[in-house]
Structures are given as C-alpha cells and as structure tokens.
Task: structure prediction
Amino acid sequence: MAAHARESAEFGTLSNVSEHRSERQRARSGANASGANASGANASEASQQLQSTELRGLPVPEGLAGLRVDAALTRLFGLSRTTAAELADAGEVSLEGRVRGKGDRVAAGAWLEVRLPGPPAGPAPPEPVNGLSIIYVDDEILVVDKPVGVAAHPSPGWTGPTVTSGVAAMGYVMASSGADERQGIVHRLDAGTTGLMVLARTESAYTALKRAFKDRRVDKGYHALVQGHPDPSTGTVDAPIDRNPTHDWRFAVVAGGRPSVTHYSTIEAFPAASLLDIRLETGRTHQIRVHMAALRHPCVGDAIYGADPKLAARLGLSRQWLHAVRLGFAHPATGAPVIYNSPYPADLGAALDTLADRRLMSREGGSIAARDERGADRPVSGASEADQQ
Result:
C-alpha cells in the first residue's frame, strides 16, 4: 500500500484512468469480436490463455516522458527490466493502442497498456520417487535411504526427482522452517550419492538437528571406493574447500576456502582400488570427492574429479562409488543416541564383486593402481593442484 501511495504522489492523480481504460477496452472489444467471427476456434483458445493474464493501463506521467518502454514499465508496474523487455518483445505492450517495442520512447500523457502475467500456478503435486525408502519415522524425524539420481530438494536447473517430493507423496508432513522447497531438509547428499538422510518433521527437531550438524555432533559415515591405494592407509585430510577458480561448477582445495576435515581408513585393498571408511567432521559440497581427488585417489566413477573412465566401465559404474552407510546423532526429542545403517545399493555391490575377481583386474588394473600410487604422496596445499583434477 505504501508503495502505491508513493507512486500516486510522484506521478500525480490518476482520476482519468477509468475513462481511458473504458475507451481502449471498447475499441479492443470491437476488434476482437470481428476477429472471433473469422476464427472461432482461435478466439476460444486465446480466451483460455488470457484468463491467466491481467490487462493494466496508465497514462505516462510527466516524469517518465522520454524513457524507453521497458524502463517505463519497470517504474510504473514494479516489473524487472528483463520481464518488461520480454513482455514488449512478445507484443504485450501498446502506446495509444499501437503495439510498441521495448526500445521505443514514451510521451507524457500517452496511454500505456500492458498485459501482465497472472499469478504463478500453484506448486505441482508431489511425485513419488522410485527406490526412496523409509528407514525410520516418528513424530519428530524421518530417516530415508536415498537412491541414485535423486536430489535432496528442488533447485534451479534440476528437473529430476527430489527427496522432499518423495516424502510428501508418501503423505509425510515436514517442518516448515527454511525455504518452501527445502522443508524438513537439514543436510544434503549429491544426486549421484546414495544413502542415509535425516529430515525434521517439527520445528523443534529442525532447530536441534541444524545445531547438531553445525556443532559437528553428527556421525556421518560413508564408504568410498577410490582408485589406487592411499598412503598412509589411514589418515586425515584437513584442507579448505571452495569453488574451483577456473571451473565454478566444480569445487577444489583452495587456499582461503572453508575449513574442511575428512578422516579415512582403508577397509579393503584391491589390485586397482581401495574401499575406504570415511568420517566427515565438516559437510562441504562434494567434500569427499574433492579431498580424495586432491590426494590423487578420486572416487571410482567420478569423472568430474578425474576418475579413470575405463575402470568405471569395467565395473559397470555410471556414477561415483560413494555411499552414506551410517548416520548417528542425538534424537532431538529425547536426547538418546540413535544410529542408522544402509546396505550398498545394487550397482555399488556389483562393482565390488567385479573387483574381487582378480583375474579381470590383472588385465588392466595394475597400470591404474601404479599411476595412482605414484601420485599419492603429493601435498594438498593449494588451488593449483586441485585444478589438475
């Protein structure tokens, strides 16, 4: 209301708006009726489309005389400059009854009319997610086992399934804290990483879990199959992570990045790869993948971070071998410690079975392992090294 009052004060009285609008709409009605007689089907379709739009018109105030059409629309109707330009390009803007482009200039007193988009459609109904299973649920929390190819929540550019949609389709109501598209989400897994996630169902659980993750009081356990054999076989990577300076769709070890700590230990060594147990102190985006790549032992199948595609093909992998096997924390309502475990999904289990066949790996695995082991002792200190991944 205050914004509209300021506009009226700045641009003067709009008492003649209704009169101008009536004249323009009567003229348009006559033209539309004539066109409708010539093409009834098209008129019906257009009528349905216009139900979701709104026709608005105003006289151009003296203070906006000489501005471009898109700039005038921005000032008069509060549109972004991009939206105003798109509407003009689509023929939705007219001056004195004539369609004008975004670059045309407006004159004081001219009747400026625009057909604005209607209110956005409501959210799409939640879609079930194949393979998403419930490990545990009560009134406070919900623990899921996330399959591959599923994001934690909607995000720009992602059109695939999400955990939030999957649990909503099952009928579960989550905490409303945070952004609408992230309700209940207190931590995330990459779409290509499988395993355990906990979601909050109440506001108190959301607050408690977010604090526990922030204070590093959550046991986040992963298994990762990496190329070669890390040396030492048990260790800690303490190296800051930030966006890759040259490829911002990746992350890297970067001086001045966010503190990131990964602990690892070898469970089993194969001729060309090692199965690691990994515990995270921090939870940076792609943290395990970045740290393992910085050690020159990327997760098998992780082409983004330098994994050998031939080894991935031999093992039948189309994504990184990384699984969230363990999740432990204090229950937000009772404070009692709880821990959940997840078995390997079929593709990761099959890859391990294939690796165990030493006859297959002896044909090509030796060269891969040797190459990785030669790089195992290189330091992890700066962005330049991570850039080579």
